[in-house]
Mitochondrial enolase superfamily member 1
Amino acid sequence: MSRETPHKIIHLSVRDVRFPTSLEHHGSDAMHPDPDYSAAYVVLDTDSGLRGFGLTFTLGRGTEIVVCAVQALAGLVVGKTLQEIVSDFRRFYRLLTSDGQMRWLGPEKGVIQLASAAVLNAVWDLWARAEGKPLWKLLVDMDPERIVSCVDFRYITDVLTEEEALQMLVEARRGQRQREEQMLSEGYPAYTTSCAWLGYSDQQLRERCTEALEEGWTRFKVKVGADLEDDLRRCRLIRRTIGDHNTLMIDANQRWDVGEAITWVSRLAEVKPLWIEEPTSPDDVLGHAAISKALAPLGIGVATGEQCPNRVVFKQLLQASAVQFVQIDSCRLGSVNENLAVLLMAHKFKVPVCPHAGGVGLCELVQHLILFDYICVSADLSDRMCEYVDHLHEHFANPVVIKNARYMPPRDPGYSCEMLESSVRRHQYPGGDSVGISMKK
Amino acid sequence: MSRETPHKIIHLSVRDVRFPTSLEHHGSDAMHPDPDYSAAYVVLDTDSGLRGFGLTFTLGRGTEIVVCAVQALAGLVVGKTLQEIVSDFRRFYRLLTSDGQMRWLGPEKGVIQLASAAVLNAVWDLWARAEGKPLWKLLVDMDPERIVSCVDFRYITDVLTEEEALQMLVEARRGQRQREEQMLSEGYPAYTTSCAWLGYSDQQLRERCTEALEEGWTRFKVKVGADLEDDLRRCRLIRRTIGDHNTLMIDANQRWDVGEAITWVSRLAEVKPLWIEEPTSPDDVLGHAAISKALAPLGIGVATGEQCPNRVVFKQLLQASAVQFVQIDSCRLGSVNENLAVLLMAHKFKVPVCPHAGGVGLCELVQHLILFDYICVSADLSDRMCEYVDHLHEHFANPVVIKNARYMPPRDPGYSCEMLESSVRRHQYPGGDSVGISMKK
């Protein structure tokens, strides 16, 4: 970004975009039987003509509430320059997440946090475009000092201070260039969730798994939790189809109480799942800890995070040894800033990060974060993989590229979540509902 | 409620009502320097002509987001009868809090939970009016079976099952009638927060405390957390003014990290506070546990809850011995239903409940819950008191009655949160912003 172009943000628009995925049971699970993958989609216009695109993922009804929250935050963004935002990004992050009146609505959780993520994702996209780099590369090229200056350490200094974080990033510089080259040539390992939604028939399950195997997939996630006998039948079918050498994960989407989770998953142990994902409430740190402890002897880990709203919840999941796999989300957490905090804490606790990427746009976004994690933080691929869901990529200007079941690093500038204007127009809800907030004259 | 009048809900209106409290620094604290006490205010109309009034409390900006969320929930309420709602209230509670698409926006936290509370508060108000009783009396007269049938035990059965809850309520029936009579004659003990907001001058502090002492107050809460030396000066001033025999509590409104909280409060130990309230993030169960453990030798307890969104967080605070005082909130938690869950868990863990009641309308609402707690659950007044703030009561049709620093049980039917229509009209934001959702024809 040259000094001459501060990129003043002169307009923020937010639109409610909904795709009718529920019609074909894509995305169906034990707690969300009929999701319509949707987004609150934000576009920032600057006086230089450069634009930033961001979104947060939703499930359909209620997206208008997130749109309303983005509008409430717009006044904190419009009128600022990109230069002043990124020169003290932590301060700007707190401005959005800790407004003296609006923080009551969270704080740092629920609708207001999803809205912050949509806005901040657009700011990060704008920054990456201003630098002419894909977001992961913007992060990889940053000084460690600059990276930690984007993180809000409030409430996490009991496990990670700014100094420790800086030290970790400096230490991880060794081999960074080789890892970047490795990613550019090989890509980051992925797993697929597209083969085994809860609403699929046995025939669909078998066909999709077989197709995926032919495409080179080796890691598969199955939705469970609605009915134990049905789960057993479906999981056995999938295990038989994919074979013993491939990896199977199961996902209950918060269906159980603590005791129920332990009993149910113990019954499913015969299909040898690597992890049970979201066994219970995402708020229940101690519950996840109890489940982890009970399932450890069976060789099954616990994964959660897609509905954990902030660094404080992740901090505790790590402190309590409640998870063996950390699942970050590019929209649930407050954008890149909050994800950086979680990546750094996970590294300190030596717990692998396996991002959540169902939904619409999440694959496009989170690939950048996990590439940064490998190149600059964890330097490790063992037990690590990023979720992939093969839905709705056709609506993006720079859709993800998967080769041999791996995410190939994006090459285009930005954060990859610009949607095709034709798609936005077609799926806007209700028709023609664009809302814009301009600078006051 | 007679069988003949099912009270079909035919209309829900929600309005954004804001009071300019920031102008005089009422309500100011270390994290919320300029709150404008506000509410999303809900009115339910029924075909019988009976109306239900409910609200959730907010701090000004962003209230429109909660209004938007109430509108999103309205379709789940309008068209139902009170009779069918209360005949399976747990089911209705889940319908609101676990909608397959909207739960993504929480779940059970933030804006969507505040909106659920506003709607459900209005349903409870309607129910109490239909029975011709104040809400506390509706609860007191209910069978234990009926009470537990209002509670969603999902995610808490590892500490409290429906059967245990029922057993506790049956056991607490002994002496219930005497406790009810005692409350009607003596009232429930209160403490005041109105004397020591952070924005007040020393002279204001001294005058307000002196006045309060003359009115019979013996328990005082002071806002702290912005500046240690300033806190010491203010707390010493207040301790000198109220004397050693009275009770002092301090409230940091989430200002500190864990280590900082311990250091800071240790310095304030000389003014002998009963509790430190909200020392850190409301999400940090393990942090509160660490603070509790460190402060126990100083005789200082930890209190939190006004920003804890659901029963799962309270469950963990109790499991981890993280709080010595549980602070329920009538609007942050999902109305009476979710508060019942917390009251029952607190009783099981023998931790006293001291409700949060700052803001607008919270005193009016929460007095009902704490009366029920004493009469039907805890049967104990030791270390128990309900917050009182002397602001904005004049806007309510049935404002709280305080005598000798005690809440006198309301006598009028309902949940006491009907606002004067003239007040609503005057403080509606922006002018004339009423939004109504009617039944589809």
User: Anything to note?
Assistant: Chain B has a mean pLDDT of 95. The longest strand of chain B covers residues 9-18. The two ends of chain B are 26 Å apart (CA to CA). Chain B has 16 helices and 13 strands.
